[in-house]
Fumarylacetoacetate hydrolase domain-containing protein 2A
Amino acid sequence: MPYRGKLRLLGRACLAFRNSYGKSERSTHLTSNIVGRNFSVSSTLDMRFVQFTFKNGGPQHLGVQLKQGGDIIAVSAVDSRIPNTLKKFLEGGDDLLKTAKRIIAEGRSIIPEADVNFLAPVTRMDKLACIGLNYSGHCEEQGMSIPETPVVFSKFPSNIIGPCDNILLPQISDKIDWEAELAIVIGKKCKSLNNDQVEDCIFGYTVAQDVTARDWQKSKRNGGQFLLGKAMDTFCPLGPAVVTKESICDINNLSVKTWVNGNLKQNGNTSELIFKPHDIVVYLSQFMTLLPGDVILTGTPAGIGYARNPPEYLQRGDVLETEIESLGRLRNKVI
């Protein structure tokens, strides 16, 4: 088939999509940090997976918090079958999840939150995909029309930093902007999904900040491609936890907020998403195989600095805070 014919077919397929889906043993180091206590777990677990190190040193661990600000159960320290990264844990499938739930129910290896440093909750994923122009207010503030199909671009896994790590201002840009985003974390290998299959492939959700160099994204530099403006070092704070889908009452009704130096800049809600999380995963799976640990940023609400009059950009010394209801808050200093 001629190339243009293929493009026409893809265009019709995308329009059809829019119409259809618009809706072991504990380590010696760890022992000194464990708090001995009884632990009660309900039948429905609020599971918040975290990657962390202890403030007094030592290796990385995989843990589970059962509530925001609560104690952490270091599941990777209790059973040697559980790896110390969420990506490898997800690759292990349902058996490892059952093991983690058993450890939680037993109340073993409980650590106070104050004793740990949170890392990004998932790292070294195969794909870090992003969706642009996915809130109507964000389209309106830039004078852009609502897209018919998801606008897809990417960052790199190496762009990810933790929930309290510093954002580095690059020397080649002075127009660094904020974008608070809900992020999807894939739990199982999947391809060519339909709406009935997608829920089983999503593991959970986390908070992301899609830091952006507007002078590289919005100009004719790099041929108009987003990539260089989106993928500079430290441009993807993530965390503090990956909250399992079962722990969230309604993923399509969560507040999304950004503060700069304590001043509220973005105040949206995931109910405003044009393409919902399930729609996005179904759409991307038509083009590529999604793998355990892959992360998908779903877009940002209105309130970016670029669209303000006059425009506002991050400066050295600023503190950027990003919060999504029920998921947690990032706090990143700009240096």
